[in-house]
Amino acid sequence: MTTRNTLVAAAATDTDTPASTPSRREWVLNRRWEIVRFLSPFAVLLIWQAASAWGLIDPDILPAPSTIAHAGIELIGNGQLAEALRVSGVRAAEGLLLGGLVGVVLGAAVGLSRLVDAVVDPTMQMVRALPHLGLIPLFIVWFGIGELPKVLMVALGAAFPLYLNTTSAIRQVDPKLFETAQVLGFSFWQRLRVIVVPSATPQVLVGLRQSLALSWLTLIVAEQINADAGVGFLINNARDFLRIDVIIFGLVVYALLGIVTDAVVRVLERRALRYRS
């Protein structure tokens, strides 16, 4: 039994009731709804394609899915999409790493220390209340039109979900665990490693998923301004040539990037929380 499990056993006062095993009928019903959820987007695409073929949707306003797919194949074939994904991926990764590091460090400090909470949290809440996308003109004045303002905008969007979730997760750790650790003579770093990190990990991972979503949202806007590469640049360039099919395909790419990165975090979450099963 691990040290954390020992602490939980020592601090717990109630026992959990084992969950009942789902019946065969419930399992079949759940699988049926999963299949419906999987097929529903394809049904929307089929209806969209049919409406376009019947002339119910103006192609100058909303091209058919087949037209958008053809535009995507064109971008893949000439290599523009691969290069755009590389540039946008680097920007998103750098911004998420910077913003995530700041958010987790400040969130942990605020959650663990009342002094830091009193000094740092009011300022953080004031900055959080600002519409961060509205700061783009100010960032351009401060940092120019290169890569730095784009990365910093992504970092600003990513920092606050992790900051709030880290702070909240630490504050919600069971006080009995800290009392037990004090009785056992744990040092600060032992309490941090054995109690705080495992207890806070689930909510921090939720914050990471929120940060990822905001990172891609921020990047969409940031890459529309004075960018010469990236998925946002493809969209902006397509707007000048009235290529609505390319614009929609670029937005689909952003959406897929968000879904894929969210799925990766969910896999990491399941692996990190295997001890709960």
TrEMBL record:
The keyword Endoplasmic reticulum does not apply. Signal peptide: none annotated. Residues 9-21 have a biased composition (Low complexity). It comes from the Bacteria. The keyword Transmembrane helix applies. Keywords: Cell membrane, Membrane, Transmembrane, Transmembrane helix, Transport. Its main location: membrane. Residues 81-265 form the ABC transmembrane type-1 domain. GO terms for biological process: alkanesulfonate transmembrane transport. Residues 1-21 are annotated as: Disordered. GO terms for cellular component: plasma membrane. Gene3D superfamilies: MetI-like (1.10.3720.10). CDD domains: TM_PBP2. It is found in: Cell membrane. It is a multi-pass membrane protein. The chain crosses the membrane at residues 35-57, 95-115, 127-145, 247-268. Pfam families: BPD_transp_1. Belongs to the binding-protein-dependent transport system permease family. This is ABC transporter permease. It comes from Mycobacteroides saopaulense.
